[in-house]
Every structure is written in structure tokens, then in C-alpha cells.
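pinned: reference chain
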Amino acid sequence: MAGKINSDDLERYSIRLGDALDEQMRRVMSPDDRKSDKPLRRFSIREMADLCIGMKYNTLRSHLKTLKGLPSGRMEPGNKKTYALEEIHEIQRALFQAGKLPDGTQPWRLPGEETAKILVYNLKGGVAKSTLVANCAEVLAARGYRVLVCDLDPQASVSDLFDVRADLDNVPSIYDVLRYESADDGPVPAHQAIAATYFPNIDILPGSIALTEFEYETAQAAASGVPFYQRLQEKLAPIEDSYDVIIFDTPPHMSFCVITAVYAASGMIIPLSAGMLDVVSLEKFLELASSTLRSIENVVPEKKFDFLRFVLTRYQPSDPAQLQLSSFLRHTLGEAMLRTDLLSSTAIADAGNTMNPLLEVDPSEFTRKTYDRIAESVIGISLEIEQEIMAARGRKSSVREVA
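pinned: its C-alpha cells
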């Protein structure tokens, strides 16, 4: 009969799995040691026009030929020109300065506008929160927004996707920003914990398993009368003006950390998997979320969100049951549902296996139909979120549409 299991056995399995994962990632990333050592893929003129700038392809080609001083890109085999994302952003700024893009559609904040703080929130696990955060962050960043991803999940999945591993690399995390003063140590300023990523325009406040300590510390502080609702907002305030959008990735459980994010956020996205059990869980979650928000409103009556939207994830429109469920949700929730769903796709699954959000994957790795289908889904969701950001800013001009 096998012996009894204790903590040493669990630790041994953890170490064994961690070593195996490191070896697997080294094989996947070879000849580089880490994902962030690889250069980000380059983008075609078509992608620049459709995704990044929102301009007709032929119009953009004409501007690239006639406007002086623009990056020239790099000619690839097959007479195809590509551009680094940094070059695309330089071109975008030049087009705005030359009046070639409509005034009022600039992704950066104008004077008097506030940073959009978006909470991706659902207590149900497996609804693609981290996938949604990473992919939408990259689309918004590609379109010129300065994005800060704030990983509030102790599992730190979205931090792993951006190859920022606070626990393994011994660098500060969001916990070090949120922690309370103690006899031995205290919190660090947010700017010291923010890490630049390999993706232009995206920084991250990485998650950490130490966030579990924040729950214990906050319970003690709250019992002593120390308020905690405003903690995340207060810690981010000094760096907020450096970004156009802050996106909070949250854990699949209620916590003090989640409550501080609810307080700090100005908009909320609730992802929902296409299954009846998930819909049943959503009803319970919304009741709990309402109670959480009401407790905040009791302290700060003026607390309001600019927008609240639901998005269906892992959706297969070819499945009759899921199609029926989608119709039910759209009838019940109305305009609160995003028009675009996050489709279930081999492109997303394969990209997840290699720890790459969609924009990091070369489209040639999939059939054109497969890639275009999921790209339309991911970009469509991001554009709807962008529209909410612009509406909250009070912009009269519409969002630059994908051509």
C-alpha cells in the first residue's frame, strides 16, 4: 500500500512540474532562452491599414509614398514590405500631424481626459479572462493606446503570457505595491514594480502568488479600521497619466483585491462561456457583484461605471445549443452584450500552447480562413471596447474603423 501524502510530496511534484515546464518552454523558444528574447513579428501594409491605423489600404499606400520622413519598412521575399510596430506608431503619429486621420480619433488621451480603467471580471473560472485581457491589450496597443495590464490573479497567467514572472525572476509585483506597512518592510511605488514588455505600448504590473498574503493582511487591517477600498486606486494614481488604458485581470474568486479593483475601475467587461451552467453561475455572480458594488456605494455614493458589457467566449456558432444560448443571452441582456463573440478556435488554442496572443502569431502558420475568422473576433471585441473608451471620453468623432 502506498504511503501517506504530506506537504513534502506536494512540493516535490511542484518542483518536478516547474522544471519540466521550463524545459518545455526552452524547446519551444529555442534558440532563445525566453519568449521575450524573440523579436516581435513584423506587420504588413495591409495589417497596418486594417488593424493599426484604420485607413483604406490604397489610401495608406499613397501616403507612405508621398509623405516625407516616414519609416521605409523592410522588403521581404516575394516583394512584400513589412514594418515593426514601433515604425507603425511613428507613421500613425505623422498621419495625425499631417491631418490625414480625423481629429478626435487619436488613441492617446487629450487634455482633461481620464485614463480608462477596465475590469475584466467573473468569478467563474475557465471563461477566458486572461486570454481576453492579453489579446485585447495587444490590439489596443497596436492601435496606438498606451496600455498597462494589472495582473491581480495570484496564478499570474497574463504575466506569464507577457514573459514577466515576478516570483521566478525575483522582481517586484502588484503585491509589493499593495502591501501594508510593517516593522520590516513596506509597499513600493507602482513605478518600481511596473515592467516593460516586449510588445510596444504595453507595460505590466505582474501578478504573484504573494497576493494571497494581501488577503490576510487586508483582513487584519480592516479589523483595525484601516480602509481598503481605495488602496489600488491610490497606488496607481501617481502613474495613471502615463497610460491611456489600464486593464485589470482578476482571479476566479471573490477577494479584497477584486473589491479594490471594482472600486478603481471605470468600466467592466464580464466574459461568459457558452454553456448553460455558466449562465446559471452568471446569475449568482451578478447578485454577488451587485452586493459588492452596493457596499462600495455605501462608502462612496458617487461610484459609477462608464460602461458594463458582457462578452460570450469559447463560442462555436456551428453548435445548435450554443447558438440557441447566444440568442437567449442577447434577448435577455440586450445591448449590454457585445456584438462580437470570442470564438472557439484552433488558432487561439495553438497560440495558447506556445504562450502567444494572436497578434504575435504569424498568419502564415494557419490557413487564411482560420486566422481571419479568429482575428475578426479578437479585433471586433477590441474595437467595441475602444468605442466604449471613446464614448466615456466624450469624443464626438467615431472610432477609426477597420478598413
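why pinned: The mean pLDDT is 89. The chain has two domains: 13-101, 116-393.
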